[in-house]
Amino acid sequence: MPQTDTVTVTIDGIDVVVPKGTLLVEAAKLIERDVPVYCYHPKLGPAGLCRICLVEIEGMPKLQIACNTPVADKMVVHTLSSAANEGRRAVLELLLLNHPLDCPICDKGGECDLQDYSMAYGQGASRLADVKSSKPKAVDLGPTIVLDEERCILCLRCVRFDEIITGEQSLRTDDRGAHAIIATATGEPYHSDFSGNVTELCPVGALTSKTYRFKSRPWDNHRTTTTCMQCSVGCQMHVDARVSTVQRTMSVPEDDAISDGWLCDRGRYNVGYVNDDRRLTQPLYRQNGEWVQIGWDDAIGLWASALRETIAKNGAASIGAIGGGRLLNEEAFLLQHVYRSLGSDNLDWRSGRQHHAYPGETGGTHVDLENANCIITFGRSPAQLAPVLDLRIRKAVRHKGATLIVVGDQASSPAMRSTRAATFADAIEAIPAGARRIALVWDGAPSSESAAVEAWAATLPAGTVLQTFVLGEAPNARGAEAVGMFPRPGSLDTQAMLEAGRDGKLGALALLGVNPVLHWPDRELALAALKKTPFVVVSELFLTETAEYATLVLPACSAFEKTGTTTNLAGDVLPVVAGVPAPGEAWADGDMLVALAEASGVQLPAPDEIEARIRVLVSQVPVIPPMTAIEAVVPRVMVGRDTVRVIAASTIFTGGGTMAHDMRLGELRTPAGATIHPQTAATMQLVAGDVVDVAGPDGGRLEGLTVALDKNVPQGAAVLIDGIPGAPLNALRGALSVHVTKHAERREAQA
Ligand code: SF4
Ligand code: SF4
Ligand code: FES
């Protein structure tokens, strides 16, 4: 008989042809038969724990579980027979035996699989004569999640997510039988940058998110599907809003191409800022040192006349604009179009340490990354800059046998095995012989590693596929770069604009969705430029560190309040859809730029033409001149007993805008700290919880950092976190080492 790779199975009288090995539960989906499941999940695989998925298979003496039965050729299956339904009824009776049935006050009510299947297959009444056993309710599982132990049906999806998908293995079951409960392996609070996914996976109301508990009912929510704009991965997500308040974001399980069906906790939990009272809702103009609220006509008029007068006095080279990474593609396009039409090429999307967004000819898709045989990462960690992309790396390493090589000081994730390489040359040596699909993942910041890539790539043997992933510092870094938010040769980039501002050579500077005072590597320069430039217009959601120095502040819409497209790090142009109205008089940056164009007499292409041009531009190679050297960097390393090398790092919960203004985040927000090796700490007579100041060689200083100890930090170094408003790392002006001074005061050590 000829061997084929497909089999034909008959499900409820319908023939289905599927690849050999397909699970019955998946084959049934092809004819829109949703076999009920609790423990099974397509991304976690079968566990065979709950038995709700019982089906009848002709020729088999007993009911079988559809989630763990591969189809066989000529198999005849009944998913809706009375025997199958009776099996499910019995399973539900057991699951409900001690279940509290507190649906009216349960957050899962209305979207709970236990509720739904009880209605579909349950018997409607309990035969239990005894009192139900009780367990603790509202157990604090960690900073993001509350556990109701009575509601748990022990499907173990949460534990398996934590093991299979993140590899973190911090959840487990404690105790046995009817007493079994979900707990953390260490007894410590559950910390994970992906913790919110377990609340979605939980088929009942046992795991609920602290930020969403008791906030809304599913039927009161209005759902929009959009792209997360918290980083450059571009995860697709649902936004649930009640009236005009964003209540929660949820993953899109079908989004295999980008998010793989997950969200990180930044995308999930950093949404409370949208409705924060401190949002800017009216244009603000500085008059005699005081903020005055003005209308939009006046605001746009002031911006247009400042540009006109500056150009008339000193020429178009004395105006410039920085921004685009946090804007939509269309907005970034309009920004460069208006300024170029006025005669200025002083444009730049770069507002932090990232200098490149385009990955070269070797870009790849998110799915390509998980299929690499060898992954080399350098610069800031993908786990922090692009969390859900890091799950692809974990998948490649933990489930597909890829080799991970981590270069330099980048923290390596304990969730997966990696090889540490001191230099890029060492990393090349560590590539396994025979690796034919190599992925490079880096942060787009210039470094010795990035400088070495091109020459090495040219030496790769024929047949080797190299794919490069440049992690964006801002969600739309790649889109902004593609649509032209960069200087032409001879015009000013960000560094040069700030220097020109400081030196009194810039008359008008626009900053749209950027915060150089917190993020530009030289804080002093950013401050000096803002103070010296006669007209600074800032478009922002909040009165940020940068907006405080503006002449004119324009209240902007968040990504939840505007519609357009964004481009992720892989070059996918993705939809952004407004889910709630903007607060007060806030405008989308695009609307501000259209009004500015009108007030300045600039012709704009039609919206259709802009869309078409964006799609072409995203596929082209941007030719950007190299960034002006950052002159303030002090490349000296101090040596001494109380001196440590600086390792700059990020976390997913740092930042000065949305993060600093999301009151719901509470303890998730990263505190200002210095993490050092225990032995280095001992030499410096420091213990965890001590409070220190650090000072760079040129006097830049950070005060009040809490010391934490970690044996994974190299000895003689301190990990300092970038982007914390109270302790801005850019105050150190790129110092490579710092002198540490201890305070008398102590604090609780940070986890
Ligand atoms: S807490 Fe939820 S996901 Fe975890 S085992 Fe219990 S029911 Fe399943
Ligand atoms: S990985 Fe990035 S895009 Fe995805 S949910 Fe997290 S912040 Fe949003
Ligand atoms: S879903 Fe099949 S046994 Fe749980």
Give a written overview of the molecule.
With about 750 residues, this protein is α/β, with parallel strands linked by helices. It folds into five domains: about 5-95, Ubiquitin-like (UB roll), CATH 3.10.20; about 140-275, 2-Layer Sandwich (Alpha-Beta Plaits), CATH 3.30.70; about 300-355 and about 475-620, Rossmann fold (3-Layer(aba) Sandwich), CATH 3.40.50; about 360-470, Dimethylsulfoxide Reductase, domain 2 (3-Layer(aba) Sandwich); about 645-745, Barwin-like endoglucanases. Helix content is about 25%, strand content about 20%. It is built from 20 helices and 33 strands. The protein has a seven-stranded mixed beta sheet with strand order 15-14-25-24-23-16-17, sandwiched between helices. A hairpin with an 8-residue loop joins strand 11 and strand 12. The N and C termini lie far apart (about 65 Å). The structure holds iron/sulfur cluster (2 copies) and FE2/S2 (inorganic) cluster. One iron/sulfur cluster binds near residues 233, 259, 386, 387 and 388.
